[in-house]
Amino acid sequence: MSKNVPLHKLAAHYGIFSSFKDLDRNIQQTSDDTQLALLAGNGIMADNAAMINEHLAEIKAQNATRRLPQEIVITSGQINHIFNLQNVEWHAELEDGTTVSGRQDDEQNGNIILPSMPSGIHNLTVKSTSQTEKITLICAPERAPSIEALSGKQNIWGINTALYALNSKSNFGVGDFSNLSTAVGAFANQGADFVGINPVHAMGWVEDIISPYSPSHRGFLNSAYIAVPASDYTAKKPEFIDYTSHKARHQLALETAFLSYQPSRNFKAFCADGGSHLALFALYEAISEIYGSDWRSWPSDMHQASQIPPRLQMQLAPRVEFHKWLQYTADKQLSYVQQNALDNGMNMGLYLDLAVGSRRGGAETWCASDAVADHVSIGAPPDHLSPAGQNWGLTAYAPAKLKASQYKALRQALRTSMRHASMLRIDHVLGMNRSYWLPDNGAPGGYIKQPFESILAVIAIEAERAQTVVVGEDLGLVPHGFRQTMRQHGLYSYSVLQYDKDEQGEFKPHAQLNAQTLACFATHDTPTLKGFHQKIDIGWWQKLGWIADEQLNTATQQRDYEVETILTQAGQEKSNDYAGFRDGINNILATSPANMIALQADDIFEVEQAPNLPGTIDEHPNWRRRNAIEVEDFADSDKLKNVGSLMRNLGRGVTQ
User: Fold this and answer.
1) CA 510, CA 620: separation in Å to the nearest integer?
2) How far is it, in rounded angstroms, from Cα 183 to Cα 471?
3) Is residue 385's pLDDT more than 60?
4) Considering only CA atoms, which of 99, 296, 288, 104 is closest in space to residue 202?
5) Rounded CA gap, 451 and 156, in Å?
6) Cα 163 from Cα 169, distance rounded (Å)
7) Which of 154, 175, 443, 622 is most solvent-facing, going by the fewest CB within 10 Å?
8) What biological-process terms (Gene Ontology) are attached (predicted)?
9) CA-CA distance, 360 to 377, in Å (whole number)?
10) pLDDT tens-digit profile of 177-203?
11) Spatial CB neighbours of 573, under 8 Å, sequence gap ≥ 6
C-alpha cells in the first residue's frame, strides 16, 4: 500500500477496508486505485489531492458542529435513555405521523428519556440554545420473531422446490402460482410445515435472463409466475424449459386477460398502497418496452426517473396501468398460495428467498438510485476455484446513500418478500456486514463495511410487522462474532450438511448443530442427494475440464470417504445402496438440534442432476430442468408419503 495518508483516512471514514484476509489467511492490501473506485461507488469523487483534502475538511467541519450521531438504534416498546445532555428540547416525528416532545433541564442532570415508541424509523430533533441536530431513530424490537413464537413448535420441517420447474399440463411451460398451490397441498398433507421456493423477484417484462438470483427489482414480483389457464397446451412437456416459447405464449395470455379487466376496488387500493414505488416501477417497465431492459442504454435524458418528460409519461399511461395490474395479480395469487398453505394445516407456509442483489441496469437501480453504488459490482474475492475472483454482476447498496435514504430500498425489498411468507431466507447475509466490490475500471476488488447493526434492526422491524422468521445464509468466510451477533437479533443460521466440516475437513457431528439454525443437505447450487452419492457433480467437473484426469481418482475416493462418514454418523451400514444413504441423511437432519430442517423435492423424487452449476452459463442447463413428475401427482407419490412418515416417526414437527 502507498503512503497516501489522506486517501486512506478518507477511505476509512467511508468504511473501506485497508486490507483483508483471503481464504488462506494471507493479508491482501487494498490498493489506492481500489480505494478511489470504492469511494466513487459511494458518490465520493476523490480524483486528486485537492478533492481528497476538501472532503476531509468537510468531514472535520461536520464533526466539529455535531455533538450527536446522525443515526442510532433504540429498542421499541420500552423507555430509552439516550444522549447525556442538559437544557435541550427534543421532538420526535414517528413513522406513522404522530409526534412526541420533551425537555431535558439542567436540574435533571442525566440522559434524554424517550418514552416507549413503536417499531419504525423515526426522526428526532434535538435543540439547544446554540444548535439544532437531527437524528434518525431506528426503533426496533430486540429480536426478530422465532419459530416457536409463530408455530408453537420447537422444531419444524419443510420442503424446498423450484417453482419454475413445476410440471403441469395447466401451465405454459413454466411452473406458476397455481401449480405451487397444488404442491403446497400435497406437502401439507404429509405434515410439512413450510414450502421453500426460489426467488420470485421481478425479472423484467422484456428481459431474457432466467436466473432467479439476477433479478431486475427485488421489491416487486415476477409476472412470469402468474397463473393463466393454458387449456391449449396439454402435451407432455420435454425435460428442459423453453423460456422463449413460454414467454411469448404466456405474455400474450396476460395481455388478453388485461383487455377485459375492469379495475376493482382492491386493485385501486393496491395501487394506492404501492404509491410512488409501484408507479415508478411500472413506468420503468413501460419504458423498457421501447428502449430495452437496461436503462444504461436508454437516451441519456432518461437515466434519472425525475427526467422523464411528462408527455412521454402520459403516452405510456395505459402500459403503466398494465404493469401495475401484473403486480396486483401476482401479489393476489401469491397471497392465495400462503393462505392455502395455512388452511391445509401448515404452521408456517411459504419460505421465500431474497436475492443478494439486483441486476445492474435493471429496474431497482433506476428506481432506487439514491441507495445503490455506482460503477461497481458485488462479488467474491479470489480463491482456489476463481483466481480472478467472482463478479456477480449485481448492484450493491452504498452505505452512505443507504443511511441517508433511511433504508427505503432495503425496506421495500424486505416488505415484498415478507408480505406473504412466514419465513424468509436472505441470500449471502454476510454482505449486510461487509460487501466485496469489484470496480468497473478494472482495479482489484475490495471490502466495504455496511451499517450492520442498523440493517439488522431494519430486518427486525419488517420481520415483526410481517410476522416472518428470518434465515441468514451465512456460508463462506464468516467474520469472528458474526453468527453470534446475527442470532442475538433473532436471525437463524443456515447449515448445508455437505459443507459443514471442521478445520481438518471432517464432517461435524450433527449433534453439534446450533439449535437456531435451518439445516439441509443440498441447495440449488450443490449436487442433489443422489447426485452427491453417485458423483454426478464430479462427472461434470471432468466434462468441463475443471479437474485433470489425475485428480479424478482423488476426488472419487474423497467422495466415497464422505459417503461412508455420513453413513457412520447416521448409524447405517456402509454400502453402495443409495436408499440407505438417503435414509441416513434424512435421519441426521430429523434428529439434529436444528429448529428447522429443509428437504429438497429433488431429493424426495430422486433427481440426479442439480438445478444450477455455479461457474457455468450455457455449459450446464441451469434453471431449465423441469420436474419429471407432474405436480398433480405429488399427492399420490409413495416417495413423498414415506418422507412424511419418517418425519412423524422421528418426532420432527410434532408439537411439544
Assistant:
1) 32
2) 22
3) no
4) 288
5) 32
6) 15
7) 154
8) carbohydrate metabolic process
9) 8
10) 999 999 999 999 999 999 999 999 999
11) 567, 580
Q: Give the tens place of pLDDT for each residue, 425-443.
A: 999 999 999 999 999 998 9
The three cell numbers of residue 315 are 403516452
DSSP state letter for 99: E
Which of 266-280, 501-515, 546-560 has the highest average model confidence (pLDDT)? 266-280
Task: Kindly list the distances between the CA atom of residue 325 and the CA atoms of 65, 281, 332, 335, 546, in Å, as whole numbers in the listed order.
Answer: 49, 12, 10, 15, 46
Alpha-carbon separation of residue 272 from 173, 314, 324, 563 (angstroms): 33, 19, 11, 55
DSSP letter for 305, please. Answer: G
CA distance 228 to 220: 19
b/e string for 589-617 if b means 16 or more Cβ within 10 A? bbbbebbbbbbbbbbbbebebbbbbeeee
Report how far residue 254's alpha carbon sits from residue 617's, in angstroms, rounded to the nearest whole number.
29
CA–CA gap between residue 335 and residue 350 (Å, rounded) = 10
User: If phi over 0 gives left and psi between -120 and 50 gives alpha, with beta otherwise, what is residue 15?
Assistant: left
3-state secondary structure 546-607: CCCHHHHHHHHHHHHHHHHHHHHHHCCCCCCCHHHHHHHHHHHHHCCCCCEEEEEHHHHCCC
| In the block, residue with C-alpha cell 462418514 | 565
CA distance 214 to 395: 10
Q: Phi/psi class of residue 504: alpha, beta or left (left: φ > 0; alpha: ψ in -120 to 50)?
A: alpha
pLDDT digits (tens, 9 = 90+) for 456-475: 999 999 999 999 999 999 98
Q: Kindly report, residue by residue over 445-455, the tens digit of the pLDDT.
A: 999 999 999 99
| CA pair distance 222, 201, nearest whole angstrom | 5
